[in-house]
Amino acid sequence: MPNKTTRIDQFLLIHSARADNWREITTLADAWANKRGERAALEAAIAAVEPAEEYHAYPGGRLLSALAERIATNDAGGAAKLARRISNGLLTHAYRGRPNEWDVHEEMPATEVPDILPPGTGEPGGRRPYFEVLFVNSQPAARWAAFAAEIRRLRRAEDSFIYEPILVGSFEDAICATAMNPDIVSVVLAEGFPYRSRHEAPVLRSVLDPLGESEGPDMSALRLARALKRIRPELDVYLLSDHQVEDIAGDPAADAVRRVFYAVEEPLEMHLAILEGVQARYETPFFDNLKKYARRPIGTFHALPIARGKSVFKSDWIRDMGEFYGLNLFLAESSATTGGLDSLLEPTGNIKRSQEMAARAFGADHVFFVTNGTSTSNKMAVQALLAPGDIAVVDRNCHKSHHYGMVLTGAQPYYVEAFPMTEYSMYGAVPLATIKRALLALRAEGRLGRLRLLDLTNCTFDGHMYNVRRVMEECLAIKPDLIFLWDEAWSGFARFSPFLRPRTAMGAAADLEEWLRDPRSVKAYEKQRADLGDDPSDDALLAARLIPDPRAVRLRVYQTNSTHKSMSAIRQGSMLLVKDVDFHTVEAQFHEAVFTHASTSPNQQLIASLDVARRQMELDGYGLVMNAIEIALKIRHAVNEHETISKYFRVLGADEMIPAEYRQSGFKDYLAPGSTWTTALKAMQEDEFYLDPTRMTLVCGTAGFDGTQFKGLLANEYDIQLNKTSRNSVLLQSNINNTRSDVAHLIRVLVEICHGIEKRLADGGEEERAAFAARVKSLMTDVPDLPNFSHFHEIYRGDAGRMTPEGDIRTAFFHAYDASVCEYVPLNGAECDRRLRDGPEMVSANFVIPYPPGFPIMVPGQVLTQETIDFMRKLDVKEIHGYEKARGLKLVKPDAVAAKAKR
After folding, report:
1. DSSP-derived pairing of the beta strands 184-190 and 130-136
2. What is the pLDDT of residues 234-283, one digit of tens each?
């Protein structure tokens, strides 16, 4: 295995690299057995993986020793068979359910076909879920095998789960094992271990360096527990101590520990505690009760004929639907909220319990399940937090649900603009300086007291992640009680990555909460206050990295999460996460928002899928998210490094998606030459914006395709589906569902498309090449400027500040309902040009949202400018919400509104 310690993607590829390494070992073993290779090459490959293999239960010491023995005795054939068996076991995870996979002497009969397929989707669930437990101890390594055997003897047939122990003997090894092995879901710490690993291997450094845990005076088990929880907060950590366990259990630092045991006086109790801890995460209260409900003989006399399925399976005309979906779907349907079920509108039973477990998993205080999408979650949050006349600073390019939420509540949006990426016809995220200017402008107008909410999208559709903690800190320094709503529809999975978590609302809120409790926070604030003086200018405040007064801050953070977009939930499954010290003051409004927006007939299967998605992410999320990142990195590399594909397509790096002034670290991209973990970590921790690696903007304009055209080609001709397009790009999104096979399919398709382009250019002659060049120029060079929000018309600014741009969007929206105060003006024509030149001003009556780019380029009450009209005219998309081509732009007539108001 080559040593690439300088590659910053090495850590992010450690999981897939393990399978690749064992396939390489199998290849080398086969070559040696067939006299086409050398034994030394095989030994070197095995030696390279040995340190990391100690962090996994399988293949384990016995199988590795057997492999080493066969090599040492020149049993090339036996070594090749065993290497292949191990490799297949890792590929299929067969060892989790087949005890014979662990047996050194278990050999497959020559006539038996090797089982290299994972369990089928239709197999009954007879297997017990498998996991691994890390034991960190100070015993000599020679004693570990016996200790592991003692642990295995504690297994009982009635145990709900089965686990294998992994033993390590140092702080460094514990960190590495937890990071490298996603199957570890529990950790048992015994005091007295050293800091340094007994290995000095490059693979260890490639893991430890990114995680930043350095040697220090505190090498205690409690420090290790806290470090492990920072990497993977979902882990259960247990502590064994032969000291004063009563004092340890009462130490605030022991909050990271689930339970403290006195040494190993109760090994069975420890075993049971481990199983109980996993059971606490495995439990899905609503789904479990729904399964029980489906098994009961229920008589239904409510308004849901499809429940129990009799109307389906007894009908010759729709029985095929029942056969397609299966009986359980209908047995589990009901409109009842009793008999073991619960009400989503006012949960008191298993839904309430499921939401509490989701809050634990996602680091929130409260969670609301939502069954009609994050559009509804956003409107619920906006309705509950804003009242008529309140001001909200909001990204103009946010999802339309936020804009409609402002309409519903009567709040006044203060639109702020994201940085443009004109070349790709998309926007990024809103710079912090822009947000601070908005807050300072409101303060100068004496309107800061009316500002209630900062509403931003994180991450954006295209992958821009804010430095969430810094944004909240600096805003709280100006307004200590500001509420934050972070729309994380696209990045709910980020909670389960140690690198992405700090850039999530709940992750940053937890870090900020910890800082607020630290006495040093007050000292830092007081020092900055002294440095800035009693009355600093706006310029000074804009230039400084502001520190809030911890004594004044009210930490109020909300996050919406499209669970179905990044986790295993059914479409429209969403969660609204709350971490708000003053939630009790808005709790009644939240319940009203639920009553307003939630269906009184929520889908049972959706609720169950949210319950199950939480379970999966708590027990498997770390590995699943790492896999999604690995898939994305492989796609980036395969596209950008391919000799043919890279001539026509490329995945944009951070340097092309984020302007340099927002990448203070100088970070360019994971795969850029010379990139190191130093710059990557600095970017993750400090840069104003960071690019989610799982979101890949694939430029297709250089291949002569606009985004919509290329999306259609992939879907119709190659069975590849994707979400978003821009004028000259499409967005590829890796997720927890993707596999290496998906990557291979995508690359094969791109190669085929490229060959088709080259054949067409070669066969078509100069005329074809000129047409292709013109098409590329049109898509990549002749791009329209992106329009910013102009301003609200004065008739919608009666309650606004003199110098601040907020406006009454609600009144403007409902003026569109009155035909007598509205008019239509054709987009293309002399009248539109005359109005832009001579007036009167054209005022939009509604939202106009072209797809792509998918954000409102006009909102109710907005004065239309030349740049907006030019952008609309250059659009070549088929779908524009709020615009009727046959009638033209729908406008409000301010004079007619004023005249009607005087009557």
Report:
1. parallel
2. 999 999 887 777 777 777 778 889 988 877 667 889 999 999 999 999 99
Q: Is 71 exposed, middle or buried (0-12, 13-18, 19+ CB in 10 A)?
A: buried
Return the ∠ at Cα 223 (arms to 218 and 224), rounded to 5°. Answer: 120
For 249-264, give the DSSP string.
HHSGGGGG-SEEEETT
Could you read off the pLDDT of 857-894 as tens digits, one per residue? 999 999 999 999 999 988 877 789 999 999 999 999 99
- Token pair 């090797």 is found at 114
Residues 498, 235 contacting (CB under 8 angstroms): no
Cβ-based neighbour number of residue 77 at 10 Å? 14
| Coil/strand/helix, residue 366 | strand
**Widest CA span of the chain, in angstroms?**
103
Strands (E), 638-772: 650-651, 689-691, 695-699, 729-733
In the predicted structure, residue 34 carries a pLDDT above the cut 90: yes
Tell me how long the chain is: 903
φ/ψ bin of 503: left (φ > 0), alpha (ψ from -120 to 50), beta (otherwise): alpha
Task: Identify residue 397 by its one-letter amino acid code.
Answer: N
* Chain CA centroid to CA 225, Å: 25
Q: How many angstroms separate the CA atoms of 836 and 868, rounded?
A: 11
User: What does each C-alpha distance from 826 to 200, 284, 842 come to in angstroms?
Assistant: 72, 56, 12
- The distance of Cα 509 from the centroid of its chain, to the nearest Å, equals 16
Residue with tokens 């239309």: 864
CA dihedral over 382, 386, 388, 390, signed as positive or negative: negative
Beta pairing, strands 689-691 & 464-466: antiparallel
pLDDT tier at 110, thresholds 50, 70, 90:
very low
Closest CA to 726 of 464, 491, 423: 423
Please give the model's pTM, rounded to 2 decimal places: 0.94
Place of tokens 């043919």: 644
∠ CA(719), CA(724), CA(728), 5° rounding? 95
Q: What is the 3-state secondary structure (H, E, C) of 210-242?
A: HHCCCCCCCCCHHHHHHHHHHHCCCCEEEEEEC
| Contact call for residues 340 and 293 (beta carbons, < 8 A) | yes
What would you report as the CA-atom Rg of the chain, rounded to the nearest whole angstrom? 30
Give me the pLDDT at residue 163, please: 97
Q: Virtual CA dihedral for 755, 760, 763, 767, nearest 10 degrees?
A: -140
Instruction: State the Cα–Cα distance between residues 638 and 689, nearest whole angstrom.
Output: 25
Name the token pair of 705.
Answer: 């395709």
- Cα 394–chain centre separation: 22
Which two tokens mark 779? Answer: 């898509």
Cα dihedral sign for 599, 605, 608, 609? Answer: negative
Q: Six-digit token pair at 79?
A: 């070594």
Helix 202-211 and helix 14-33, axial crossing angle in degrees, nearest 10: 170
- H/E segment holding residue 185: strand 184-190
Residue by residue, DSSP assigns 842-876 as PEE-S-BEEETT-S-SB-TTBBP-HHHHHHHHH--
What is the C-alpha to C-alpha distance for residues 898 and 903, in angstroms, rounded to an integer?
9
pLDDT band at 844; cut points 50, 70, 90: very high
Distance between CA atoms of 605 and 325, rounded to whole angstroms?
Answer: 12
Contact status, residue 499 vs residue 684, Cβ threshold 8 Å = yes
Token reading at 495: 């909670």
To 10 degrees, the CA torsion angle through 2, 682, 632, 120? 80
Burial zone of 644 (CB within 10 Å; 0-12 exposed, 13-18 middle, 19+ buried):
middle
Distance CA 606, CA 351 (A): 12
Output helix, strand, coil percentages for the chain, rounded to the nearest 5. Answer: 50, 15, 35
Sheet hosting strand 729-733, strand order edge to edge:
650-651, 695-699, 729-733
Coil/strand/helix, residue 580: strand
> Do the bridges between strand 889-892 and strand 822-825 make them parallel or antiparallel, or are there none, so unpaired?
antiparallel
